[in-house]
Amino acid sequence: MQFIHMADTHLGYRQYGLSEREDDFLEVFDDIIEETVKERPDFVIHSGDLFEYSRPPTKALLNAQKGILRLKNEKIPIYATAGNHDIVMRKNALPPQILYKDFGLKLISPKNPYYHEGDVFIGGAPYASKYNSKDLIDRLEKIEKASQNHKKRILVLHQGIDLYLPYEYEIKIGDIPKTFNYCAFGHIHERIVDDFGEGKLAYPGSTEVWRSNELEGYRKNGKGFYLVDVGGDQPEIEKINLKLPREFIKENIKYSELQEEISKINNHIKTLDKKPILNLTVHGGNFSRSEVYEKLNKAFKDNCLSLRPKYLPDILENTPNLSDMPRDALDIKKMIRGSLEDFKNEEVSELATDLYKEMSEGDPARATDLAKNFYEGLYDN
Ligand SMILES: [Mn+2]
After folding, report:
1. What burial class does residue 133 get, using C-beta atoms within 10 Å of its C-beta: 0-12 exposed, 13-18 middle, 19+ buried?
2. Looking at domain 2-241, which CATH architecture does it have?
3. pLDDT tens, position by position, 5-32
4. How far, in Å, from the CA of 36 to the mean position of ligand 1?
5. pTM of the prediction?
6. Distance separating alpha carbons of residues 305 and 109, to the nearest angstrom
7. DSSP string covering 179-197
């Protein structure tokens, strides 16, 4: 009994506002579907964040439809639950996955919390925020009960766990039932496989580089999905890596070696099929940003998709180092929560911290989406 476990495909994400990046995410999804058809698993599990937005662009919807229809034609069932990106802060809102019901997708939702695939039990819930974790824990109890008489039991969730995300979790590891053979998680974009309870707990990670801070994990552990065999006593998990369509080049360059490094990178770019994304940090020496920018732009404007330079001249190195300060001293989220205390509305303070996160280090378009969804949710209720 084999299945494919994937998550966090984020279809419709237009990274850096580039349509090429939107296409990269779609291409990776196509590749996963191709691989799936080759592997011929008994079924597929998608643990949430199929889409980047709760109202995805048509192109992303069509791409997902094409893939899911392909699985249907190959008689490979797919089970999916909604992640925080698929359904944003709207109680009882329907995630876009529901569109594919007639194309064979089985949505794991509060209405249909579990299914049976042969003698395998597949149960779970959509993403719940930290403030709804009590509801989630109640749900988990019921799902665990329903699973009891099945030989093999799979739990599908899209949540951050305190063990892996000590600052941004929604659920504690102790609150997850321990009697499942395989806990198929989504949400954390790194790959994680751990022993847990009677079986394994796994995050397959995102399928593309969604934020540039995922690069290190990608280089170390690859990106892709898991092929899981639950036939034996313990699940066997095979990590399947994909070749991503586009390279990210991330380099730290000493100002004194700028010319040399530019020609090295240019030589490397000549070997690539697609224009890469360049994350370059120039450091050391006293240089002007505009001078360095001119040089980089001249060297790379025609052969890279996006040039994202950072500058760290020596002069900055004398200013106090923020990372030396105690973490609490600069906990902006805590400060936002503190200043919103009078509202006594945790959803408002969650909205504020999410907006802060997206607007400072994330995606302004997503911030707009969050705000829109929040207000529409208010009017709906
Ligand atoms: Mn995600």
Report:
1. middle
2. 4-Layer Sandwich (3.60)
3. 999 999 999 999 999 999 999 999 999 9
4. 21
5. 0.85
6. 39
7. --SEEEEES-SS-EEEEET
Contact yes or no for 153/147 (Cβ under 8 A): yes
> 120 Cβ partners below 8 Å, 6+ apart?
1, 42, 43, 150, 151, 152, 153, 154, 230
Q: How many CA atoms lie within 13 A of 215 on its CB side?
A: 11
**Residue numbers annotated as active site:** 85
Task: Tell me the pLDDT of the chain averaged across its residues.
Answer: 91
Sign of the four-CA dihedral 98, 102, 103, 108: positive
* Assigned token pair, 372: 């829109």
Q: Where are the beta strands (DSSP E) in the chain?
A: 2-6, 43-46, 78-81, 105-108, 114-117, 120-124, 152-158, 182-186, 192-196, 199-203, 224-229, 236-241, 248-254, 277-283, 306-312
Distance from residue 119's CA to the centre of ligand 1 (Å): 30
C-alpha 65/C-alpha 72 separation (Å) is 10
d(C-alpha 125, C-alpha 169), whole Å: 16
The 10s digit of each residue's pLDDT in 258-287 is 999 999 999 999 999 999 999 999 999 888
Gap from CA of 172 to ligand 1 centroid (Å): 19
